[in-house]
Amino acid sequence: MNTKPALLLQQTRSNLVEQEFYGYIVLCDKNKNIKKIGDDADYPFFHRSSAKPLQAAILKDFKTDEYYNLTEEEIAVCCASHTGENVHLEILKDLLKKGGLCEDNLQCPAIEPLDKEEQIKFACRYSPLHNNCSGKHTLMLLICRQMGWDIETYLDRNHPLQLAVYKKIQELCETNKELAFTFDGCGAPNFATTLSELAKGFYNIFCTNDYTKIKNAFLHHPYLIGGKHRPDTEIMQLDNHICAKAGAGGVLCIANTSSSQVLVIKLLQADMKARSIIAVEAMIKLGWINNINSTDDTLLYNRTVTTENKKPVGEYKPLFDLNGIIN
What we know:
By secondary structure, this protein is of the alpha+beta class. It has one domain (6-326): Beta-lactamase (3-Layer(aba) Sandwich), CATH 3.40.710. Helices cover 35% and strands 20% of the residues.
């Protein structure tokens, strides 16, 4: 792994540097030219949950959206890493009914929802629906039911569903290479490409007219993609032309559907707040959004470091320059 990550962000406390954050920024322009900050040496990184819109793209191949008459809201939840709020759960329940399925068919584990209020409400009585990946699993089950495939083994690497997902990711990411494979946290197969290939995958979903139903699901329903205090939702709410999807392991993909550009950020420390600050700073430097003076400390991209009683003691300082990759 002969990579050279760039120093992207510092966090200070009382004028001393307390933390530094390293990683890569990849920009795919409207002509699919790739420019980078940090040398990733074209090392393959797992997509984690950033893969969800790429995985969902097979619904077009099988006309699953037409078969089940899927709404934008339903497609959004199928692409989501959701917080397990009621607005997500009710859509999921309706989706399962469309396929004659129930939550017992989901093979994602029953874990606590990402939203803390929901955690308290359910007091450890969680179901697979609360898993932030349950939308992806629901879509996988729906396609299996539609195609007459076994729903008991839908997570197997060689299941027809997973083989179709694999080929779709290769197609969207414009690669014929064999993709490295692992199981994601939720148990579903997950694949790795270079960050440049991942950027092209997002370009082909969000900067073309080939997958408009997925694109519109993101553009029109950003809250369903994540939820309360989630990075992709917060970023999409800054501008109505932005589509974003975060993943574990420090990955974040952002598409500007107006300028037909894609940003891919890979932060080595996988710090969600630091990653969000880097993303918003990059969007400002690219002219995607105006400069933001956020005073809401609940927002992930707020740059002030405070004590627990909200006294300011430091800040997050972006250190990267995009001039070399914009022109």
